[in-house]
Amino acid sequence: MEQHAIIIVVVILALSFDFINGFHDTANAIATSISTKALKPRTAIVLASFMNLLGALTFTGVAKTVGGKVANPANIEHGVYVVAAALVAAIAWNLFTWYYGIPSSSSHALIGSLAGAVIAAAGFSAVNYHGFLTIIEGLILSPLLAFTVGYIIMSIIRLIFANFSPHRINSKFRFLQIFTASFQAFSHGTNDAQKTMGIITFALVAGGFQDTLEVATWVKVSAAVAMALGTSVGGWRIIKTVGSKIIKFEPASGFASDLTSALVIIGATLIKLPVSTTHVISSAIMGVGSAKRFSAVKWGTAITMVSAWVITLPVTMVLAAISFLIVKMLFL
């Protein structure tokens, strides 16, 4: 396939991934505010779409990390085809987990797929293991941090407001959730949309269309818009899981969950580290629930989610490797 044609295919696949990521992860930003009735579903989705767009247009550091730390795109033969294979695998896994309502990680899917396709194309030596492991460490440690911070914030809230009437507390925190849901959607855009920008930039460098990992303006805008449009569609299956099947939400716990995850995600963005917003938000919810009482968390659902997190990386690596081998047989 001619180089210009395949780069167009890659861009379409990347923006499709971004769109799917938007509706796949919409639940993460708004499930708590819908569950506590702080926001009506349609209002929450419109708000999340706008804040995701704003967040996606604000930063590019994570994009450069994704575009250059897994492998050097300039050293990968047929690098554009590698990216195409990676995106096919990541999209397939995202759609599979969305269909079954499993809040798996789009970030794990994308990073795993890129690594798997690179290995299939150029061998294990082509992977930048220092950069790859740095990303994996961030993906593993960020949920643990979110759980801890969520536990602490909820414990503080319970201590401060122990003697307040439930009705008074609920009305105040329900109002505050509008702002924390907005902050969470903004932080989601600052991190998740950057991954698609990074993968497109990887393909552009690999295909010789540009020499550096600087994110072109058209890449930035198109990725931001694709994610915002995806968010506007809404992922109702996952909203149900995140909003009701982990813990029973009250406005105070919803506020604590939103604030925790937003702080962890924006912190990761500032140090240019891609994290799984799904993992962070779900772990924050578990931490908040544990602060109320350990039995408040529906651990059966939590175990199912963690299982999906654990298998996503190896499964997408294998899927991407197979995808690249098929692409190689057909086009190379």
SSE inventory with pairings:
Blueprint: H1 3-35, H2 41-56, H3 61-69, H4 79-99, H5 106-122, H6 129-160, H7 166-206, H8 217-233, H9 236-244, H10 251-270, H11 277-292, H12 299-331
Organism: Desulforamulus hydrothermalis Lam5 = DSM 18033
Protein name: Putative low-affinity inorganic phosphate transporter
Main location: membrane
Distance between the termini: 8 Å
Kindly name the structural category: mainly alpha
Number of domains: 1
Mean pLDDT: 87
Shape: elongated
Per DSSP, what share of the residues sits in E-state strands of 2 or more residues? under 5%
The percent of residues in helical segments reads over 70%
Give unreliable regions as ranges.
Answer: none
| Rg calc | 20 Å
| Tally of DSSP β-strands | 0
Order of helices and strands: HHHHHHHHHHHH
User: Total helix count?
Assistant: 12
Profile the largest sheet: none
